[in-house]
From TrEMBL:
Signal peptide per UniProt: 1-23
Record-linked SUPFAM superfamilies: Trypsin-like serine proteases
Organism name: Rubrivirga litoralis
PANTHER family, A to Z: PERIPLASMIC PEPTIDASE SUBFAMILY S1B
Family under the similarity heading: Belongs to the peptidase S46 family.
Keywords: Aminopeptidase, Hydrolase, Protease, Serine protease, Signal
Name under which the protein is recorded: Dipeptidyl-peptidase
UniProt key word Signal: yes
EC number: 3.4.14.-
């Protein structure tokens, strides 16, 4: 559900997280499990569209005009996807993709996150600082230009340098076609991104038109955008009005002309409708070998969940204390972390399922038989994972040490001082409650490393508990405050230096593993593309893809989930949870007063959310969902927790993606928010004034 923002960047290298699930005895014979044709997923490339597959599956053969419109009407924004929905630069995406923008345009004390925002005329639309949106205007295969220098490099550092040099040459060549010699961060511009597909088995250069004047037009109250709170997150049936509008303006300060856009469908979808989700899926790991998946499951998982759990608990306690001067920012961080808790936990449940591993193993056997080269590479990768297991304790202790976002300021200052870095004094103080919680968590992780290895704790870490060590550091170290200088013999500096050799050894070893792993993945990706071609799409790369699916419910929890939910259900959730003796102000299904007042004016049979078999993942938030005619029928915003396994395997029988129905968007604009001008624009293309 969440955008790929700060936490995502932090966690992507780790891919999955949660404590190891109890061992399950298979209730089937793993040798009888067979791979399915679409196990590699349906995140199709626009440069290699599966037209014949679509024709055979749905009797639908998109032409070049359909693909072009789908590409140009779609947009990428930081961490999310979006799309043009009028010829005047009007953009529709998810509320949770706009959440930080809502906070950013708040002029102080407005409380827009809770109150919502609606500009009733163009002059009221507020520019969002530093927000940009990208439109993919050209694609070129640059495999020949990129592969030769990268393949010739001998080390990871050399490969990075070779990639950067080749990418710079490709970028300069492509930008010259648009008359661009240097990027201008103050104006609309073109940017080029070279994307390594199939782990570097193939390269595509994407040229984007980057729009920098993006203004918030409308966002409902967070109570609607995140209706049901964390309880409903990664679940279905859902009733969330997770949508928001922006507008892109040109360099002339006028609304952008956007001739390629998706008109909103008036008829919508029904059970059995074919839909196409167009967006920028962030990252998948379907190209990993079984040995790599088992290492993720067995070694790295608990570390990430412990990190997320401890920081979420600390922030919640801080928010509950009433001490936070800007509670909306804290709530935004909690939202990000709570989303991660469910996301990574669901992924682990998939990897802990013997059937999923057996199905991946079956696909790997097929690949080995089809390609002797692949078989040899897979064997090398297996041996490498065995080497990594020797550093299991370090992999659990060190990855999040000294985190800039969620780590102790005291330890960050001590680290800077130990390295002779003048930045020690530049680290701002954290609120005392957060500082103590973060410090205890980091100390506990360090103590756990030495205990797991059966080694004595270094003197600075000795004590009855992590809490006792944290107490001692907070009371004796000058690094506890940004106000004081940190001496060379400061207790926190002594601690940092005590663990530095082990940390350095881990970083060196893991960098070596990463280089070898990347080289093997590149060779294996090339073998995969040679063997299967575009029939197996590459792993997600936060670049534009489209996926097909069918609107359908599914069995769950001993009953059946409907393909669509309605406003009847939304109001039922409110009354069932919030007016039956609970505190309405703290109810996750609470509705704002304007929604309660509007109930009599609404068509309660209006669909709110629907679900399909489309192949989506993080980064697809805000993705336009269109029908065969290119009409917008929905906005992707989530997937069910059972569907989190699709990070590693597309299994449509397990879970669904979840979308906002655009009929709900139109009903809300007309009968809750009285935004008739905005509604007229998305229905007839008439620009409001």
């Amino acid at each position: 559900m969440r955008p790929l923002a700060t936490l995502a960047a932090l966690l992507f290298a780790w891919t999955v997280a949660a404590p190891p699930a109890p061992a399950q005895a298979p209730t089937f014979d793993p040798d009888t499990v067979r791979a399915q044709p679409l196990d590699g997923g349906k995140m199709w490339l626009f440069e290699d569209p599966p037209t014949e597959y679509l024709a055979e599956t749905y009797g639908f053969r998109p032409d070049e005009a359909w693909y072009r419109r789908a590409r140009l009407a779609s947009l990428r924004m930081p961490g999310c996807s979006a799309s043009f929905v009028s010829p005047h630069g009007l953009v529709l995406t998810n509320h949770h993709c706009a959440q930080s923008s809502v906070v950013a345009v708040d002029e102080g004390g407005e409380g827009l996150l809770d109150a919502g925002f609606a500009a009733t005329e163009l002059g009221q639309e507020r520019r969002v600082p530093d927000l940009y949106m990208d439109q993919l205007v050209a694609i070129e295969d640059v495999t020949a230009e990129m592969s030769a220098p990268v393949d010739a490099a001998q080390t990871d550092a050399e490969r990075e340098a070779a990639f950067a040099e080749a990418e710079a040459a490709v970028t300069a060549r492509l930008l010259a076609d648009y008359g661009v010699t240097a990027p201008d961060e103050d104006a609309d511009d073109y940017v080029v991104q070279v994307v390594a597909l199939y782990d570097g088995g193939r390269y595509s250069a994407y040229t984007f038109r980057r729009y920098r004047d993006v203004r918030l037009v409308m966002a409902p109250e967070q109570a609607l955008g995140f209706f049901g709170g964390d309880y409903d997150n990664f679940t279905y049936p859902r009733y969330a009005a997770d949508f928001a509008f922006f507008r892109i303006y040109g360099d002339d300060g006028q609304p952008l002309e956007s001739p390629e856009f998706f008109p909103l469908s008036q008829e919508g979808v029904e059970a059995g409708s074919v839909v196409f989700v167009i967006g920028n899926p962030g990252s998948t790991a379907r190209g990993l070998t079984v040995a790599q998946l088992e290492f993720l499951r067995d070694v790295q998982l608990a570390t990430t969940l412990d990190f997320v759990d401890s920081r979420a608990a600390a922030l919640q306690a801080y928010l509950d204390s009433g001490e936070a001067p800007e509670p909306d920012q804290v709530r935004s961080q909690i939202f990000e972390l709570s989303n991660a808790q469910k996301a990574f936990g669901g992924r682990l449940r998939g990897l802990s399922d013997p059937y999923i591993i057996a199905r991946r193993a079956a696909a790997e056997r097929d690949f080995r038989e089809a390609s002797p080269e692949a078989a040899a590479i897979i064997d090398e990768q297996t041996r490498l994972q065995e080497e990594k297991r020797d550093l299991a304790a370090a992999y659990r202790a060190f990855p999040y040490l000294y985190s800039r976002t969620y780590g102790s300021a005291l330890l960050q200052r001590a680290q800077a001082a130990a390295e002779g870095n003048a930045e020690a004094a530049a680290v701002e103080d954290r609120p005392a409650r957060l500082e103590r919680a973060y410090l205890e968590a980091e100390v506990d992780a360090l103590r756990g490393y030495y205990q797991a290895r059966g080694e004595a704790l270094p003197t600075p870490l000795q004590g009855a508990s992590a809490e006792a060590v944290a107490d001692r550091l907070l009371s004796t170290s000058a690094a506890a405050s940004a106000a004081g200088g940190v001496a060379d013999d400061d207790p926190a500096v002594v601690l940092v230096r005590a663990v530095a050799p082990d940390l350095a050894a881990f970083r060196s070893a893991s960098a070596g593993f990463s280089a070898r792993e990347g080289d093997l993945a590149r060779r294996l990706g090339r073998a995969r593309y040679v063997t299967y071609g575009g029939a197996v799409p590459p792993d997600a790369t936060f670049s534009l893809r489209f996926t097909d699916g069918v609107v359908t419910g599914y069995p769950y929890n001993g009953t059946i989930a409907p393909p669509l939910t309605t406003l009847f259900g939304m109001y039922d959730r409110y009354h069932s949870f919030c007016t039956s003796g609970r505190d309405v102000a703290r109810c996750d299904w609470a509705l704002p007063e304007n929604w309660l007042e509007a109930q009599g004016n609404l068509d309660l049979s209006t669909p709110v959310n629907f679900t399909s078999t489309s192949d989506t993942i993080g980064g697809n938030s805000g993705s336009p969902t269109v029908n065969r005619d290119g009409e917008l029928v929905g906005l992707n915003f989530d997937r069910t927790i059972e569907g989190l396994v699709r990070d590693y395997l597309y299994a449509p029988e397990r879970g669904r993606n979840v979308m906002v129905d655009t009929r709900l968007v139109q009903e809300a604009l007309a009968n809750v928010y009285d935004l008739d001008g905005l509604l007229a624009e998305i229905r007839s293309g008439t620009l409001r004034q």
